[in-house]
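Translate sequence into structure tokens.
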Amino acid sequence: MPGPEFRPRPRRSRRGAALTLVFAGVLATGAVTDALPVDRPADDHRPLAAGPAGATVDPDAVARAAADAVAEGGSGTKAAREVVSRSGDRWGAVYDRDEYARFQQTLDGEYTGVGLWAKRSADGRVEVARVRPGGPAERAGIRPGDRLRTIGGRSVEGRPVTEIVALLRGDERTDVTLGLARGGRAWTERLVRTTLSAESVTVERLAGGAVKIRVSSFTRGTGERVKDAVADAPDGAGVLLDLRGNSGGLITEAVTAASAFLDGGLVATYDMDGEQHALYAEPGGDTGRPVVALVDGGTMSAAEMVTGALKDRGRAVTVGTRTFGKGSVQMPRPLLDGSVAELTVGHYRTPEGHEVDGRGIVPDLTPADGEDAEERAETVLSGLGAGS
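Result follows.
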């Protein structure tokens, strides 16, 4: 999902600015870029589609299937989806024209939906991860931990992320009925979709003088907001960079965010069409203040790229649990009927060459059972000299 400012094909340039990541927003929020290539995570902590890691699909075969279907009066989108679903490409997806247009809206931190995020639990069921304050879901009393069973009367079990996002999304002021469960209670809730803004960066002053910078996604402008937050932090104050639940976004924004803590140097490498490329941080970042990056299983994609860069380069102590493990790169391809296919074309690696796809990033410190991860991170940050 591409952005007009990134049309050129990536070259072996120092900045690698053409590469972008796209995220599907953990079920309810999603985003797309308008750039080549893209990297989109799934909706839960495991891929929903089968297929070995690294499986790809012939883009020409997808395009031919769509064109043939249109010529015969059928749906090019449906035909393309069938080819992708059979290919084993775990992260490949096909969006119709309207879905793609709605996804592009999220580039500016806006989306039309009901204001909930979801994840797949250990037993394979889909549950609400969090709700947006003031959004339709919160007003209806939906809470984190509620099980999401159906959307519009259709079961979510086994559905790929693109279908679930499409079911939750729609035009403003249209309604959608969710089937939910909590404990022994099952019920339905009718919600009216609305346009919501997603503030990607929030800043909080912690006890002792440290600053917590929470980054929920990498939409347009996020990187500069992170840099501004670091620049505005008191001299010597440590930074707790909270990337938990961050489902990814534009990689140009992720590189800019990493640049807040680096003085140039490598952020990541990626391969595409058999060629190796590199992404570099901007010079001039703050390399002095202590940094702790807080991550979890919902830290995906572009957020994993930032985590890997700060960890490998010794710029941050990472605390939390293993990250999601989404390091594959998709390239969007327009189809004859106006739909867009995103197909896997390569994978990225951290500065030390570690693969992320299917593996995730293991943090430096993992909280003990029952220990609060954020409290542990603040303790670590304090020990590094935060606020001194």
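Note: Residues 172 and 299 are 29 Å apart (CA to CA).
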